[in-house]
Design a protein that fits this description.
Blueprint lengths: L2 H30 L4 H4 L5 H9 L2 H26 L2 H7 L4 H43 L1 H4 L6 E5 L2 E9 L3 E9 L5 E15 L2 E15 L6 E11 L1 H4 L14 H5 L6 H5 L1 H13 L2 H14 L10 H25 L4 H23 L7 H19 L5
């Protein structure tokens, strides 16, 4: 690249980084607030909260990066136009397509980043979130049980402890388990400990009573025990065997799924839609860059309005993205929707390149501008009228 190309390339990527960090930070905060219960109800530290919520950032970047690139290219072109640099470069022999070259290089950098994030980084972060969440759930007995409080670990599982004793023991344990619709189990124990092993997580209760109410029986069954292991594996999922969703799969796992995968058998359409989304993620930056430059990259004087061009580029880019979302949803049931999305994306790239090569300047018709100017003058004269006594 020449000095001009490097200047535009650096300016575009610097703007892209600033916009990407700003937008991602704002959206990340809104997403992180949903997980604030990690600290409030589950007793986790601020570091755990930040660690878990930050793992969703790659998935956010995957969606935000093409939009941030569009904003960065718009800012760079507006800066070049304001300083009359586009006019000077055009007078020096730079064609619009030649001027597009540094923006194309910047788009390639963004596309490579999006490819890596979509193929590996985003699904890896999401599966780490699920694994971490399972581990926190598995460790819930030692983290959220507060003395004197009834902790509802699940919709139908309530546990209370009277106090925490030295050596990790729990004193005065009450358990109300209604997870099984056929029976209700109530346990009161003098003390107990938390036991974790390869088989799962258990609350080992000692010196207590177990009362079981079964449907269809008038009298409850009452059992006194010296030691009883209350299995929490169903609730905790042991923090080890985590079932991965579709978004948590790496790209190669979507391309070659196991035929025995129960999720693939049940949700094959969603596998297909997610795979096409991963394939098209690196294409969106090229479509957004081509359309944005097509609307804003033509040389204009400072007297020529750029409002219509800016509005047109925003409408084209966001329209393309919204239609892409719609096609992605329809691909679950209809594979032809993915073909429409591919045609739409490459059609947008082709349209942008055709406008760039043709040097098409997007500006409002002269009659429309004349009518707008007359209307503005009429409104200005109305407000300049002297007030009558």
């Amino acid at each position: 690249m020449g000095s001009i190309d490097k200047y535009i390339f650096r300016t575009t990527l610097a703007s892209f980084a600033l916009v990407l960090v700003s937008l991602t930070g704002v959206i990340w905060i809104t997403q992180a607030l949903r997980g604030i219960d990690l600290m409030t109800s589950q007793g986790q530290t601020i570091l755990t909260f930040l660690g878990i919520t930050s793992l969703v950032i790659p998935a956010l970047v995957l969606i935000i990066a093409p939009i941030a690139l569009m904003i960065a290219i718009s800012h760079t072109l507006n800066k070049l136009a304001t300083d009359s640099e586009i006019i000077v470069m055009n007078a020096a022999g730079f064609s619009p397509f030649r001027l597009f070259r540094p923006f194309f290089f910047a788009t390639c950098v963004v596309a490579v980043m999006v490819t890596f994030i979509g193929a590996y980084l985003a699904p890896d972060g999401l599966r780490r979130i699920k694994q971490w969440d399972a581990e926190i759930t598995a460790d819930v007995l030692t983290n959220i049980l507060q003395p004197g409080r009834f902790a509802q670990l699940d919709v139908n599982l309530t546990v209370r402890i009277r106090e925490r004793l030295p050596g990790g023991q729990l004193g005065g344990i009450f358990v109300d388990d209604r997870r099984d619709p056929k029976e209700r189990v109530t346990i009161i124990a003098d003390h107990g400990t938390v036991l974790k092993n390869e088989a799962g997580s258990y609350l080992v209760l000692e010196d207590g009573n177990l009362e079981r109410f079964e449907i269809g029986k008038r009298e409850p069954a009452l059992v006194a025990f010296a030691s009883y292991a209350f299995d929490m594996s169903k609730f905790s999922n042991q923090g080890r065997d985590v079932s991965l969703g579709i978004r948590e799969r790496y790209l190669w796992e979507l391309m070659w799924p196991s035929e025995d995968d129960p999720i693939y058998k049940q949700l094959g359409g969603q596998f297909r839609a997610e795979l096409h989304d991963r394939f098209m993620a690196p294409v969106y930056p090229f479509a957004f860059a081509a359309l944005t430059f097509a609307f804003l990259g033509a040389p204009r004087t400072t007297r020529q309005s750029r409002n219509l061009a800016i509005g047109g580029s925003i409408f084209a880019v966001f329209g393309l993205r919204m239609v892409g979302f719609a096609c992605s949803v329809m691909t679950v049931k209809n594979p032809l929707a993915a073909v429409v999305q591919y045609l739409m994306l490459f059609g947008g790239i082709g349209l942008g390149i055709w406008m760039i090569l043709g040097g098409i300047v997007v500006e409002p018709p002269a009659r429309l501008m004349e009518a707008i100017n007359k209307n503005n003058e009429r409104i200005a004269r109305f407000f300049r009228r002297p007030a009558t006594a």
